[in-house]
Amino acid sequence: MVKQGLNCALDLNRHGILDKYNVELIGASCDAIDKAEDRELFDNAMTFIGLETPTHGMAHNMEQAHEALEKIGFPCIIRPSFYPGWYRRRHCLQQREKFDEICARGLELSPTTELLIDESLIGWKEFELEVVRDKNDNCIIVCSIENFDAMGVHTGDSITVAPAQTLTDKEYQILRNAAIAVLREIGVETGGSNVQFAVNPADGRLVIIEMNPRVSRSSALASKATGFPIARVAAKLAIGFTLDELRNEITGGVTPTSFEPTIDYVVTKIPRFTFEKFTEANDRITTQMKSVGEVMAIGRTFQESMQKALRGLEVGMCGFDPILESGLSNAKEVLTRELNEPGAQRIWYVGDAFRQDWSVNTIYDLSGIDPWFLVQIEDIINCEKEISQLTLDKFEQDYFLHLKRKGFSDKRISQLLAVTELEVQQARQAMGVRPVFKRVDTCAAEFVSSTAYMYSTYEEECEAQPSERQKIMVLGGGPNRIGQGIEFDYCCVHAALAMREDGFETIMVNCNPETVSTDYNISDRLYFEPLTLEDVIEIAELEKPAGVIVQFGGQTPLNLVKRLEQAGVPVIGTPPDAIDRAEDRERFQQLIEKLNLKQPPNCIVRSVEESIQQANKISYPLVVRPSYVLGGRAMEIVYNEEELKRYMQESVMVSKESPVLLDYFLSSAIEIDVDAVSDGKQVVVGAIMQHIEQAGIHSGDSACSLPPYNLPEEVQNEIRDQVTRLALELGVVGLMNTQLAYQDSEVYVIEVNPRASRTVPFVSKCIGRSLAKVAARCMIGKTLEEQEFTKEIIPNTYAVKEAVFPFNKFPGVDPILGPEMKSTGEVMGVGTTFAEAYAKAQMGAGDVIETSGNAFVSVRDRDKDAVVEVAQRLNSLGYSLVATHGTAKVIEAAGLPVIGVNKVLEGRPHIVDMLKNGEIQVVFNTTEGKQAIADSSTIRRTALRHDVYCTTTIAGALAVCDAVEFGNNMSVYTIQQLHAELH
Amino acid sequence: MPRRADINSILILGAGPIIIGQACEFDYSGAQACQALKEEGYRVILVNSNPATIMTDPSMADATYIEPVKWRIIEKIIEKERPDAILPTKGGQTGTQLRTRSKSAWYFG
C-alpha cells in the first residue's frame, strides 16, 4: 500500500528533488514517516518506550516457519507475501494440525517464497485515539473512538463509537499516555496523528496496532464528532504556531486549541457497502476495507445515536428492522454464520438474534461485540416487543418520550404498530413530543458556543435559537455510494456558499462525516441529521426556511420531495412534477414526441412473456433494467431471447409493481453528456462532453472529453438545440443533465435528469464558472442575464475525466465495464491536445501503460473491422502483436505481423499463461454476450492481478494509442491561468 | 511565537481520486489546510487530480494544479513554482498496490 501524498513526498526526496530545489518538508519528517511505516523500525520504537506490538515473524522455509511459531504461538495468522489475493488466503489457525500444510501452500503461492506469520488479534477490542501535538510538546487527545466490531474487521468497515464507551477511566488514561508517548517516539513534531490499539478482553493486554502520522479517515470523523478542526489546526502548527496560541473557532475563540475537547453526547459511525454491485465478490468484511461510504449520527445516548445512524444509512432500514426471513428452517445456521463471519448487515442480525431469544453471552461468543453494546441492543429489541403489543391510542406522552430518547423513528414505531408513519407523526406531535436541538461545541456546554452546529434529541432545553433572517436550506446527499458521491456534495457546498454570498442565512442538513458540506464553516447553520422525512420536517418546522434546495444532493433528497411538499415545506427550483415527467417512462415518451425528438425504440414490460413479445418488435440487442434506479443497478445488455429470459427470471423479479424497461441498444453510438442550466426562460449549456468509450458503458464509468474530440460541429449544434428545448419544456429552474447518443447521423435522447449530475464539478473546473452556484441563484429568482451567464463557454484546451475503479479490492470480480456503474471516483487531465489530456488522466488514475513489449488483442466479431486500425497503430508504436486466432486472422489479412495464441478454452499454453509469465504488457479485449464475457473474464482478471493495463473498448484502445504516442512530455497548467484565458 | 517568516510559499499535495479506503475526508482536511495557510498570508500551491473536490476550487489556493499526484509531475510544478515548503500530510492513503516497475514503463505509478 502506498500513501499518495506522503509517498509522493518520499519519492521526491528519494529522487533528490527536495534538495535540488531546496524545498523543506513541513508537518512531517521523512524519518517519522519511515518510522511509522516500516514495521521493524516501528516495533523497535515501541519496544523502546515499553509498549507492545503484535508478535510476528517471517519465514522463507518450513524451518523458519516453525521458529516463528515458537515465538508467536496459537492462534496465529499465516499469509503469503506479495500474493495479490492474500486476503482470501489468510488462515487463522487455532492448532498445529494444519500448520505445515498451510505454510507449504503459502510458500508456493508467494512469488518471493515468503510467509508472514502474525499473532492473531481476532476478537480483541479495538480503540483509536486522535492526538494533536505541537513543537513545544503540548499534546491533546481530540477524541477516543471505540470499534463496535472487534479486531478482524478493518476499522474503516467497523461501526465505531465516540467517545469510547467500555473503558474505565484508568484504562483510558493508560491509552492516553501511551498514545502521547507514541507520537513523541515516532517524532511527530507537529500535527495530528491517529494511534490504534487492541486490547485483549480476556486479560487486558494492550498492543499498538499502528499509527498514522497524518490526517486520516478517523481524524475527519473525530473532527466532525467533536467540532475540533484537526486539519486546520495541524496546518497552523506546521508553520510554527503552538496549541495555546491558536483560538478554537467553534467556541468563537473563547477557548484555546490546547483545551482538550469534551463531549456530552454519543457519536456512531456506520459504514456503507455496495456488494450488490460486485456480485461475484466475497461479501464478508475482513481486514481489507470494502465500504464505500459512511453515515454518522449524534445522540444523547448510545441507543439514540445508533438508531439515528441506522436510518441515516439509507439502505431501506428505519432502525433495527428484522432482516432474517421469518419461518426460515435453518435460521440458527444463518444467524450463527452472520454473527461469526460478519457481512454488511451483521448489526441487523444481532437484533434478530435477540428476537430469537439468544443470550448476550451466545452472541458475544460468536461476534466478539462487547457485551455492553449487546445489552443496549437487547433493550431496544425488548422495547420493540413491547410496542408491538400496544396500539397507538394507548401511547402517552411519557411513553413516546421514552421511546424517542432511545432513538426510535416514527417509521419504525409505525411498522411495529402496523399503522402509517403519518399517523405516528401526528399522534406524537399532538402530544407535543418534539425534538430539541443541542450544539456540538467541543466543551460540553461549559462555554456558550457561537457556532450553530446541531443535532436533535428529546430533552427539555433547545439550543437552536433560530433567527428571523431569510433562510435557504440545502439538503445534502447522505452517505457516499457508487453512483452518488462527492460530486453531489460539491454542488451542495456551492449552493450554500452562493446563498450566503447573496445575503441569505444558509442551513445545511446532512449526515456524511467525510464531506466538506458537514464542515460547520460552509453554512451558517449545520444540522448533522439523517435525511429522512421525519428528521427533515422537524428541522424545517423549527427554522421555517424561505426555500429548500433538493436538486443538488443526488437521489437522497429527491426521494423526499413529494412528501415534503405535502407537508408544506417550500421546495424551490425545478418543480417536482418535471422530475416525474423525466423519470416516468410513459410521460417521458410523450415529452420526446411532443418536441419531435428521437429516442431508441423502447417499452415497459410487466411479465416474462410480455418481454419476449415486445423484444421481437424492438429487435435485439436490448438494454434491460428495472424502472427507477440510479447508477444503473441491475442493468444489462442482452443479445438474444435466451439471455433476455435468463435476465427476466434470474436477475430481476419482474411484476406489475416493479416493471422492467427494454430499450433498443445503439451498439456503435457515440455517447454525449450535456450539463445545462436554466432560469425558466433562458437555457445556457454548461458543456458538451463526448464519452470515449462507446455506448453501453455507464456514463459514470466512461472517460469523457470536454470539449468533444471528434464530434462534428453541426451535431453539437443539434444537441444544443435539443437540450434547450427539453429544459424549457420541462420548466427547469436550475440544473439539467442530458445523456444523448449519436449513431448513423441521428441524435437520440437517452435520459434527462432535471437535477445536479456528477459531471457538474468537472464542467465547472473546465469553464471557470460554478454551475451549481449559477443554478442555485436561478432557484431564488435571479435570471441568467442578471448573473451574466448567457453564453456557453468553450475552452480552447482539452480536459479528460477518467473514472477510477475498486476492482483490486474485490478479487475475483471481472473488471469489465458495462451499463452498471462501478467506479468510486474520478480524475481529470488537462492538455493542449486530446492526447495530452488523456495521457494525464490515465496517469492520474494510477494506470501504468507499458510502452513496449507485447500487446494482446482480442475482439468480438463486431469490432473485427475496427481492430485493424488499432493493430496498425500498435505496430507503428513498436509493440509486437499477440492475438487470439480469430482476431489474428484479421490482423494478418491486413498485412501486419502477429502471433496467434489460444483462448483459455482452446487449451494450454493459452493467453492467461502468457499473462502470468509476464509476456504481455498491454491488453485490448472487447467482448459481448453473457457467455463470451464469462469465458474471457480470466484474461481481464489476470491482467488486473498482474497490473497489466487493460482496456475493454475499441474507442478506449485508440485513445490509449493517442496517449502512448504523446509520450511523457507533459506540461503543467494552473486552473487560474486556464480560466483567465477563457474570460 | 508568530508564524514562520522564513517561508513564503507552500505546496500542498492532495489525495487524488476517491477510492475505497480513501474517500472525500481528504478533501475536507485539504480544504481546511489551504484556508488556514492562506489566511496566514502564505502563497498556497495545490496539486490534486480530482476535479470533484472543493479544495481544487480556484479560490482555495493561489495556484491550483489539477494534475496527477506523481513525483515526475510534481517535479515540474516545483520547478515552475519554487515553493519553500511541502505539506504532504493531507494526502491520505491510496489503495493501489505498489506497481511493478520495468525499464520500459512510460511512467511510474
Description:
The complex is a heterodimer of chains A (983) and B (109). Chain A is of the alpha+beta class and 983 residues long. Chain A has 35 helices and 35 strands. Helix content of chain A is 37%, strand content 19%. In chain A, a hairpin with a 4-residue loop joins β24 and β25. The longest helix of chain A is centred in the first third of the chain and has 18 residues. About 1% of the residues of chain A have low confidence. Chain B is α/β, with parallel strands linked by helices and 109 residues long. The relative contact order of chain B is 0.26. The chains are: A alpha+beta (983), B alpha/beta (109). Chains A and B meet through α1, β1, α8, α9 and α18 of A and β1, α1, β3, α2 and β4 of B.
Mean pLDDT of chain B: 80
The secondary-structure element order of chain B is: EHEEHE
* Number of E-type strands of chain A: 35
Strand order of the largest sheet of chain A: 10-9-6-7-8-11-12
Please list the strands of the largest sheet of chain B in the order they lie side by side: 3-2-1-4
Descriptive terms for the model:
A: 983 residues, alpha+beta, 7-stranded antiparallel β-sheet, 7-stranded mixed β-sheet, 35 strands, globular, B: alpha/beta, Rossmann fold, 4-stranded parallel β-sheet, 23% helix, disordered C terminus
